[in-house]
Write a structure and sequence with these properties.
- By secondary structure, the chain is α/β, with parallel strands linked by helices.
- The protein folds into 2 domains: 92-193, Beta Barrel (Elongation Factor Tu (Ef-tu), domain 3); 204-343, 3-Layer(aba) Sandwich (Rossmann fold).
- 21% of the residues lie in helices and 22% in strands.
- It contains 7 helices and 11 strands.
- The chain has helices at residues 53-76, 172-178, 214-225, 249-258, 285-291, 309-316, 329-333, and strands at 92-101, 106-112, 125-131, 147-149, 160-166, 185-193, 204-210, 233-240, 263-269, 301-306, 341-343.
- Strands 4-3-6-1-2-5 form a 6-stranded antiparallel sheet, covered by helices on one side.
- It is globular and about 50 Å long.
- The protein starts with 52 loop residues before the first helix and ends with a strand.
């Protein structure tokens, strides 16, 4: 996972409509019988058999209405969650609920949140992670390995939260997490607040990402685009080694289809296959000049960057640990200022 807070090199239900199965009483016709006289051949016509269907549907409707009222009242009286289950000062263990393979080196790890609560993580923010067992994951100096990860699940999603984690062969944390089994726990602390995104603060927003650095950019996109008042136009430049490495592509394509006037996605790959029709190679000056709103727009434009350290440095200059560091790279050459650029 790409570091976004700490310097890291890990880059209908259909019910059958059936009448109640009650047996009908045998019909006893009405006969006019006079004692001492003959029986007339003609009799009074039989009364029409009454149907239980109206009663059945009436009863069902009453039950359905009562259930709706009950659930609606229960929902209205459901206590409002005011606090995140995470602690920004202390690590808390969460149980791994499910592992969903994504591709050859990436999986989604779903962690259970007790009491069916939501994460309530602000946008944009991340969590820092370490092993629940203090002896299980240490660096060369014997200190616990701690890495930041950004959930891809919505902050108001109840019951669990999801991390999309790419396994790096040189990344101790990612390798450790990929060895976890369902039922194991991982320790989290946060949220670690990053950029305080506000709706319609900018006219144009560019998001430049690489590899698993897509996760904080995806968090911003899903949050902003779901706001019905959003007017900001977003441009995502997302680079990967191969087409198979493009994470969240189905989700990003769905967002672009749903919000065609507010989101444009450009994928780039370093090693294109024979069927690749998009741009290839690294994100360079020409790509940025072609797709990103110019620096001359001033405070109306913002550029977010998150990816491997080398990519971040080439595009926007190196980060200084947890601090932004000076603006550099291509964006500086094109005239962007520190106020216009944010490095996750």
């Amino acid at each position: 996972m790409i570091s976004c807070a700490i310097k890291s090199y890990e880059p209908g239900f259909n019910q059958p409509s059936v009448e109640p199965s009650q047996p009908s009483l045998p019909y006893r016709g009405n006969y006019d019988v006079l004692v001492g006289t003959r029986r007339y051949a003609s009799t009074t016509p039989a009364a029409k058999k009454s149907s239980n269907i109206p009663l059945f549907f009436l009863t069902g409707g009453v039950v359905g209405l009562a259930t709706y009222i009950y659930l609606d009242r229960a929902r209205k009286h459901e206590p409002i969650q005011e606090k995140s289950p995470f602690d920004p000062q202390n690590f808390v263990d969460f149980k791994l609920k499910k592992i969903i393979p994504y591709n050859h080196n990436t999986s989604t790890f779903v962690f259970e949140i007790p009491n069916n609560e939501a994460s309530l993580l602000p946008v944009a923010s991340c969590l820092v992670v370490k092993a629940s067992d203090p002896e299980a994951l240490k660096d060369a100096k014997g200190k616990p390995v701690i890495r930041p990860y950004t959930p891809i699940s919505s902050p108001d999603h109840k019951g669990d939260f999801s991390l999309l984690i790419k396994k790096y062969e040189t990344g101790n944390a990612s390798k450790y997490i990929h060895e976890l089994k369902e039922g194991d726990t991982l320790s989290f602390k946060g949220p670690i607040a990053k950029f305080p995104y506000k709706a319609n603060e900018f006219d144009e927003v560019a998001l430049i990402g690489g590899g698993s650095g897509i996760t904080p950019l995806y968090q911003v996109l899903t949050h902003a685009l779901s706001d019905k008042t959003n007017k900001t136009k977003f441009k995502l430049l997302f680079s990967n080694v191969t087409e198979q490495d493009i994470l969240l592509r189905e989700d990003l394509d769905a967002l672009q289809k749903k919000y065609p006037d507010n989101l444009d996605v450009v994928y780039l790959v370093d090693k294109p296959g024979s069927n690749w029709t998009g741009p290839s190679g690294f994100i360079n000056t020409d790509i940025i000049k072609k797709h990103v709103a110019p620096a001359s727009l001033g405070d109306k434009v913002k550029v977010f960057v998150c990816g491997p350290p080398g990519q971040v440095a080439a595009v926007a200059g190196k980060k200084a640990g947890m601090k932004q560091g000076e603006i550099g790279g291509i964006l500086k050459e094109l005239g962007y200022t520190e106020d216009q650029v944010y490095k996750f």
